[in-house]
Amino acid sequence: MGSRQRKIRKPQPKKPAGDKTVAEIVRELKEGTAAVSDYREQSLKIHGLICAKCGREFDFKNRNLLTVHHKDGNRRKNPSDGSNWENLCIYCHDDEHSRGLLGDYLKGKGGRQT
After folding, report:
1. Where are the domains of the chain?
2. Which residues have C-beta within 8 Å of that of residue 18, sequence separation ≥ 6?
3. Is the alpha carbon torsion for 68, 72, 77, 78 positive or negative?
4. b vs e for 77-94, b when ≥16 Cβ sit within 10 Å of the residue's Cβ?
5. 1-54 pLDDT, tens digit each
6. I want to staple 46 with a disulfide (CB 3.0 to 4.6 A). Which of 8, 69, 82, 97 is the partner?
7. pTM
């Protein structure tokens, strides 16, 4: 009786059921059918693709430059009506957060004092 050799396959990583391909996600975003699961997407839908500070308009291609700023500074406070959010471009968002640092520095509260 001859022995039969079995081919051993490497286990293939399984795709979780909830995972979608990039093409599927892009299609849903373009069609506006993507599930609103996080506050960023909710804010973009509520407030639009425009910076609340400088007025710059964004589109699908450059929407990654648009951020969500929490008006009260509490990033855990995310009411579904968007009342604690404003969409800011990355430049205005950096400016908004650096103002407090600059003010503290000028008042002598931040960093080393001489």
Report:
1. 36-107
2. none
3. negative
4. ebeeebebbbbbbeebbe
5. 556 666 676 665 555 446 778 887 777 666 655 544 588 999 999 999 999 999
6. 82
7. 0.58
